[in-house]
Amino acid sequence: MDNLDKAREELVALFSHELKTPLTLVVGWCQVLQDYKIIGRLNAEQKNAVDVISANSTILRNEIENILDTKKLIYGTMLFSFRKIELNKLIQRIIKRLKPVTEERKIRVVNLATKRIILRTDEDRLEQVLSNLIMNAIDFVPRKTGVIKVGTREEDREITFYVKDNGKGISKKIHRQIFEKLFQEDSSYRRKHTGLGLGLFLCKGIVENLGGRIWVDSKLRKGSIFYFTHPKKVKLRRFSLRRRKQ
Ligand SMILES: Nc1ncnc2c1ncn2[C@@H]1O[C@H](COP(=O)(O)OP(=O)(O)OP(=O)(O)O)[C@@H](O)[C@H]1O
Ligand SMILES: [Mg+2]
């Protein structure tokens, strides 16, 4: 990477950081407005307006997180912090968090994770991988008939996660390329599907740092299944560990 690239990346990261704080406030206040117990019931038009703001600020916030984390992956400065979590509950929480987007598009997201699997992992990073895969699926399934299934399969030494959609599918010749930084299949899709092409690069980086693998199985027009594995015992380099916030 030359100096100009480096300077550009630093600038983007700095800029993104500045955007993150006000956006977090927008997302937070939307949640307050959506909770009738706090603020009272909104009428249908008000509710619709808040839902649109909420759905789009959620997408934007995810995008900013991705830019900041891509920089960390490139420079090898991403840190991890572990504790035991119940996977079914995590997936349920992610689905709930994405509700503003899925409800707006009338897409169904189903949690098929096995009950009571406990895994020692970095919860925030695992959430980021799953959210990115689900957000992609949301973008490529049809409105109203879109169905996304999220699940887990337990094996001896690892857990396999999957995110299955009935979207437009991905042709076999780009199954590897989609995990590259800034890769997007078709620019004509951009009007419908926004983003920078960082999500899968980030998923791959996080999954591999945790000792797993990620791949896709998909046929054009039939839908896609993204899989990734997570070892039950993660071996990290010492310097990649961060203390948990108290
Ligand atoms: N579920 C899916 N169905 C069809 N195509 C997909 C799916 N997931 C990813 N892709 C293809 O892979 C490309 C790369 O995905 P990736 O998540 O890295 O970037 P993005 O979603 O375009 O942008 P970003 O994640 O930065 O918002 C997408 O642009 C799309 O062409
Ligand atoms: Mg994406």
Give a quick set of tags describing it.
single chain, 246 residues, alpha+beta, two-stranded antiparallel ribbon, 7 strands, binds adenosine-5'-triphosphate, binds magnesium ion
| Helix percentage range | 40-55%
Q: Please tell me the CATH architecture of the largest domain by its name.
A: 2-Layer Sandwich
Rg, rounded, reads 18 Å
Shape label = globular
Indicate the low-confidence ranges by residue numbers.
none
- Quaternary state of the chains: single chain
Question: Could you give the distance between the termini?
Answer: 37 Å
> Which cofactor or ligand species appear?
adenosine-5'-triphosphate, magnesium ion
Q: Give the biggest beta sheet.
A: 5 strands, mixed
Structure, briefly:
The chain folds into two domains: 3-75; 83-231, Heat Shock Protein 90 (2-Layer Sandwich).
Task: Walk me through the topology.
Elements: H1 3-34, H2 36-39, H3 44-75, E1 83-86, H4 87-97, H5 99-105, E2 108-111, E3 118-121, H6 123-140, E4 147-154, E5 158-165, H7 199-209, E6 214-219, E7 223-231
Parallel strand pairs: 2-4
Antiparallel strand pairs: 1-3, 4-5, 5-7, 6-7
Helix pairs in contact: 1-3, 3-5, 3-7, 4-6, 6-7
